Amino acid sequence: xxxxxxxxxxxxxxxxxxxxxxxxxxxxxxxxxxxxxxxxxxxxxxxxxxxxxxxxxxxxxxxxxxxxxxxxxxxxxxxxxxxxxxxxxxxxxxxxxxxxxxxxxxxxxxxxxxxxxxxxxxxxxxxxxxxxxxxxxxxxxxxxxxxxxxxxxxxxxxxxxxxxxxxxxxxxxxxxxxxxxxxxxx
Amino acid sequence: xxxxxxxxxxxxxxxxxxxxxxxxxxxxxxxxxxxxxxxxxxxxxxxxxxxxxxxxxxxxxxxxxxxxxxxxxxxxxxxxxxxxxxxxxxxxxxxxxxxxxxxxxxxxxxxxxxx
Lengths: 186, 115
Fold this sequence. Notes:
The complex is a heterodimer.
Chain A: H1 2-19, H2 23-43, H3 47-69, H4 82-105, H5 121-132, H6 137-145, H7 147-168, H8 173-185
Helix pairs in contact in A: 1-2, 2-3, 5-6
Chain B: H1 2-19, H2 23-45, H3 61-67, H4 71-102, H5 107-114
């Protein structure tokens, strides 16, 4: 029941973030949604993810505020045209219809595949402490059973931050001077 | 019910991506979709009345196996959250560059200024 309340709050926050005209308040409300998500992770017995989510959420807010705050235009003017809007709404309705059979296949809430003995997680729970020596099974999966996954994640994070730096880098003084000279010659 | 509400959250994110013209709004929509999917994966692994998958010395193996929630989605969602931050940092830096170049966040105006 408490998840439903949290999810309704998240939906309200997301709607405000989508519809408000002020960009800064949209950013703040998406931050609120992120912190409610981390609270929901805590209720869902996932403390590791709750901690990660809080840290990443703070960084996300800093990055998004940097994108909006120092610019002159901070309000949104309108939406797309009528045709584009109705087309996107039609696509959303189609996806909802296509997802309907999928929801009937899902296990009931609170009864995961693990408790029916159909998941590999039982093996991790049984053998995690003995094979890796980690009392926290999530950590033992993250850093031992699926180590390559974590290394790949670190690679992706490193590559994306390198990309962000390459995009945001200013041209060096020497190059700028050369460009000025070219313009003067013209 | 919980699944349907997280699906609604996903659809709000998709609506925000598909119908807004502002680049920052599109990035926000991507972020909302990411929250919805992470939450959905954790909801699948939840066990009613469960405990966190951390085994303290006073727990027997049978008790732990009977009550612990599914640890596998949690391990994958940690990865997914961090990758989501990487995507966000890259897209926001692109948005800042576009603003410096064209002086606007509006994608229609950017198209017009380019052509």
